[in-house]
């Protein structure tokens, strides 16, 4: 909030102080605040101002301002709402992003605030309550679009309003009908059921029949006959005409304009865009066709901003794009990722720009009696799983996988790759967490093989499995909490690492006690601490840490001036672990003898400022499309557990780690290529957000979500345990049959159980990291594992795992890829749940006049409904897939499906 001046409306007094929505309705050119009970009720004859406040735990607050224009609102009130949006931005210290929302063309971000939907009301808002007594029930037909944020629009109640692409809701006094166009997706149908539930609860008091009508289905269903009778009888729905409006916008070239004080648009000369083109004292328009942005420099005043917005809205009106184009207003320093993606280079956003406005906001809040807290310090790390489970570690060495003994599990090498399997109790069941740890100096072939080996062991292990790929120096704190105490040495023990340094005639830096070695000590507690061997040079020092320097004759502990008492305690404990016999010389920074600097090759400069931990962004959920190597992501705003639709593969970006969530009904090839999808996501956001390509990637499968994933949601385990596709699950809930689709509860498992393994190898031990745990060799894996000699145990090795790191790391990629392709698994289509997408037979035929696109053309039969499959093939789907391949293909050829 800024100082209340004549330019700022008094309605914004204390705006933005509390999290959540604040809404004002424009009435007679005044702002009327709306109570929460009316949030989501939008009248088509009004304009509204909507403020969404997100007060983060560990970062500056986020404010989004939307002004919504009803289709029947007059120009004066629409312009008034636009101006007030800018005033509200000023009131909040110019720290908002502003959006123009036009009825029927709202952004998904705006729609996400009002789940499951908003249904605009005809007329004008009045504070007087209306009396509907005696009025007959109005039959309405609603058009629903969207698979995550649903746009609902009332359309004319006639057959001509229906089409094959969308989902429609027909609301009558006694029954609600859901009509699904044959080209609509399961996710769209499922989301429309949320709207059905909303209509049922708000307009029928929760008591109303619900019927589902499928486009093209007529036989033996009384609901179908009743539905069409309301339209005067059945008649075919015409094929939808092609719509090229949005496509034309998307194909438009991106152009940057400078907006002059006189209200003129001056196009930027140049083909490429760079941030240096934007002057802090000017305003610009970035015209992207389907969306446009107004960028306002931080040195521009309110009058300039109002002029710019008026110019842009006039420009869009003249272009005939006033309702179809999304318009976003950005202040310098608050650019959205979508805006930044249009520029070739964009430096990472500095939080200082936020702080300028936040200082003003804090001053006003305190002046008005609000207690404003400073940004909180980082909270202590909290583990979301039981860290007293069972641990096993393997090291990759050539074609072998060597089990690391409990005594050696505290020692890993930067030239090697390791698999860490951790088994723990979670919600009464057994969970398996696998990490593929990739050393900084490891060899490409070992990086590829560690993923193959991890997949193989995970496939052979009973219980729920979560897989993760992590790089040295980017480890999640959870891994260190599992390992407890670990020393990372330079060099390696792998056969391939030894062969590489021999071929390249590189000095072998593998640690031994006869060499000089420098270790950086770090950690969060005695139960999670590490000693990392770094280059023995003074430039490796940092005043924020403590170090151990081991020379041939002496051992020094070096205590940085900015290190904490916790760091000092960890230093003492780590010395006991590294070698308790060393005679220690304790040095404080600034009191080092010459022998210390000589051992480090001389005294040079090193970082002496306090290391500030970057605040992690709030988690964001993304869906994506991948066509011909064109990977595009789209954010799902205000996400909930319901957005994890079983047909999808989604990515949860938590800034310091990402999760690839795989729905049970998703395309099976994504499950084999999940790490590749995660890497593609990192490559995409890396260009805009600067996210490291070595960010840890977790692979989570639906129904096996671990607590450290579900903590980002308000998690309902009963929803997670439902059978069926997303539409069937939602329909069961709407009709009150939820229990019929729930998966039976699994048997409980305790961490202390002594389940026998095939080879009987299990022993209790006290590991050298200071705690007792049971070390097991799952599924008969013991000692070393060779790919050539143990194929019996690992015949289900997912071959595509070999392709995951082939291209980014150089010359050996093609060889690894070809080896993987030579042994592709035969996937039984029964297991892929083919009904996740269903199309009629006439559209799946090779000679169809209206063919379906974007399907697996080698398995056209998989997209038939169960009933049509039986009718066409004369057998069940299961019986068909039990036939030999040649016989399957012969039947498919006879039906023009192959």
Q: What's the helix and strand layout?
A:
Blueprint: E1 20-27, E2 30-33, E3 47-54, E4 62-69, H1 75-91, E5 96-102, H2 108-112, E6 140-145, E7 151-155, E8 167-171, E9 175-180, H3 186-204, E10 209-214, H4 222-229, H5 245-251, E11 255-259, E12 265-267, E13 283-287, E14 291-296, H6 302-318, E15 326-331, H7 337-340, H8 352-367, E16 390-397, E17 400-404, E18 411-413, E19 417-426, E20 429-438, H9 444-460, E21 464-471, H10 477-483, E22 485-489, H11 495-503, E23 517-525, E24 528-534, E25 546-550, E26 555-559, H12 565-578, E27 584-588, H13 594-599, E28 620-627, E29 630-636, E30 649-653, E31 658-662, H14 668-672, H15 674-689, E32 697-701, H16 707-710, H17 717-720, H18 726-734, E33 762-766, E34 772-776, E35 784-786, H19 813-821, H20 841-844, H21 866-873, H22 877-881, H23 885-894
Parallel strand pairs: 4-5, 9-10, 14-15, 18-22, 20-21, 22-24, 26-27, 31-32
Antiparallel strand pairs: 1-2, 1-3, 3-4, 5-15, 6-7, 6-8, 8-9, 11-12, 11-13, 13-14, 16-17, 16-19, 17-35, 19-20, 21-32, 23-24, 23-25, 25-26, 28-29, 28-30, 30-31, 33-34
């Amino acid at each position: 909030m800024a100082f209340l001046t004549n330019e700022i409306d008094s309605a914004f007094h204390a705006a933005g102080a509390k999290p959540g929505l604040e809404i004002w309705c424009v009435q007679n050119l005044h702002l009327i605040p709306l109570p929460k009970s009316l949030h989501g009720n939008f009248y088509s004859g009004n304009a509204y101002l909507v403020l969404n406040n997100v007060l983060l735990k560990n970062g500056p607050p986020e404010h989004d301002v939307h002004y919504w224009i009803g289709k029947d609102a007059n120009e004066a009130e629409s312009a008034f709402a636009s101006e007030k949006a800018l005033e509200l931005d000023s009131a909040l210290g110019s720290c908002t992003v502003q959006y123009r929302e036009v009825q029927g063309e709202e952004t998904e971000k705006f729609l996400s605030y009002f789940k499951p939907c908003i249904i605009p009301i005809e007329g004008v808002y009045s504070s007087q309550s209306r009396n509907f007594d005696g009025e007959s029930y109005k039959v309405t037909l609603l058009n629903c679009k969207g698979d995550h944020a649903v746009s609902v629009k009332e359309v004319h109640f006639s057959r001509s309003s229906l089409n094959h692409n969308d989902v429609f809701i027909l609301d009558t006094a006694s029954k609600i009908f859901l009509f699904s166009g044959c080209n609509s997706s399961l996710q769209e149908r499922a989301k429309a059921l949320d709207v059905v539930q909303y209509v049922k609860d708000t307009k029928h008091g929760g008591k109303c029949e619900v019927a589902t009508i499928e486009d093209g289905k007529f036989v033996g269903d009384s609901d179908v006959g009743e539905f069409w009778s309301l339209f005067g009888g059945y008649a075919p729905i015409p094929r939808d005409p092609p719509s090229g409006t949005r496509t034309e916008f998307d194909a438009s070239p991106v152009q940057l304009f400078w907006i002059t004080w006189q209200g003129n648009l001056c196009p930027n000369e140049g083909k490429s865009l760079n941030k240096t083109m934007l002057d802090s004292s000017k305003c610009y328009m970035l015209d992207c066709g389907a969306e446009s942005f107004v960028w306002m420099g931080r040195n521009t005043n309110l009058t300039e901003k109002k002029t710019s917005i008026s110019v842009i809205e006039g420009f869009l009106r003249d272009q005939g794009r006033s309702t179809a184009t999304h318009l976003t207003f950005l202040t310098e320093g608050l650019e959205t990722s979508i805006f930044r993606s249009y520029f070739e280079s964009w430096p990472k956003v500095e939080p200082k720009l936020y702080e300028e406005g936040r200082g003003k906001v804090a001053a006003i809040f305190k002046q008005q009696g609000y207690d404003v807290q400073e940004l909180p310090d980082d909270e202590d790390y909290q583990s979301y799983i039981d860290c007293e489970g069972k641990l096993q570690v393997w090291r990759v060495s050539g074609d072998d996988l060597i089990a690391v003994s409990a005594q050696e599990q505290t020692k890993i090498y930067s030239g090697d790759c390791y698999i860490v399997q951790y088994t723990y109790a979670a919600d009464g069941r057994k969970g398996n967490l696998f990490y593929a740890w990739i050393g900084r100096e490891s060899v490409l072939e070992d990086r590829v093989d560690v993923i193959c080996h991890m997949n193989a062991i995970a496939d052979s292990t009973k219980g729920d499995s979560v897989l993760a790929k992590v790089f040295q120096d980017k480890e999640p704190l959870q891994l260190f909490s599992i390992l407890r105490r670990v020393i990372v040495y330079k060099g390696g023990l792998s056969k391939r690492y030894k062969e590489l340094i021999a071929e390249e005639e590189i000095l072998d830096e593998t640690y031994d006690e006869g060499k000089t070695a420098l270790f950086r000590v770090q950690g969060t507690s005695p139960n999670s601490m590490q000693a990392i061997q770094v280059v023995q040079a003074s430039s490796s020092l940092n005043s924020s840490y403590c170090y151990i320097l081991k020379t041939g004759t002496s051992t020094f502990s070096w205590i940085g001036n900015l290190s904490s008492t916790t760091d000092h305690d960890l230093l003492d404990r780590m010395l006991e672990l590294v070698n308790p016999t060393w005679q220690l010389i304790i040095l404080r920074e600034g009191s080092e003898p010459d022998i210390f600097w000589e051992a480090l090759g001389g005294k040079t400069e090193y970082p002496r400022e306090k290391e500030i931990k970057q605040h992690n962004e709030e988690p964001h959920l993304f869906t994506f499309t991948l066509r011909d190597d064109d990977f595009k992501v789209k954010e799902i705003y205000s996400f909930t557990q319901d957005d994890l639709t079983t047909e999808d593969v989604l990515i949860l970006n938590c800034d310091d780690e990402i999760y690839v969530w795989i729905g049970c009904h998703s395309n099976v090839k994504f499950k084999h290529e999940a790490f590749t999808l995660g890497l593609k996501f990192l490559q995409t956001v890396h260009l805009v957000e600067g996210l490291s390509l070595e960010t840890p990637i977790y692979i989570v499968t639906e129904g096996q979500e671990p607590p450290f994933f579900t903590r980002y949601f308000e998690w309902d385990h009963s929803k997670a345990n439902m059978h069926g596709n997303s539409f069937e699950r939602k329909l069961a809930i709407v009709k009150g049959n939820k229990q019929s689709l729930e998966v039976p509860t699994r048997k409980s498992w305790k961490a202390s159980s002594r389940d026998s393994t095939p080879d009987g190898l299990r022993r209790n031990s006290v590991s050298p990291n200071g705690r007792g745990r049971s070390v097991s060799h799952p599924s008969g894996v013991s000692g070393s594992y060779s790919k050539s000699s143990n194929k019996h145990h690992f015949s289900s090795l997912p071959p595509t795992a070999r392709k995951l790191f082939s291209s980014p790391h150089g010359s050996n990629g093609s060889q690894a890829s070809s080896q993987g392709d030579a042994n592709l698994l035969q996937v039984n289509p029964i297991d892929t749940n083919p009904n996740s997408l269903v199309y009629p037979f006439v559209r799946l035929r090779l000679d169809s006049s209206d063919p379906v696109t974007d399907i697996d053309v080698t398995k056209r039969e998989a997209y038939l409904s169960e009933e049509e499959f039986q009718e066409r093939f004369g057998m069940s789907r299961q019986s068909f897939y039990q036939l030999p391949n040649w016989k399957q293909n012969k039947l498919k050829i006879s039906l023009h499906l192959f």
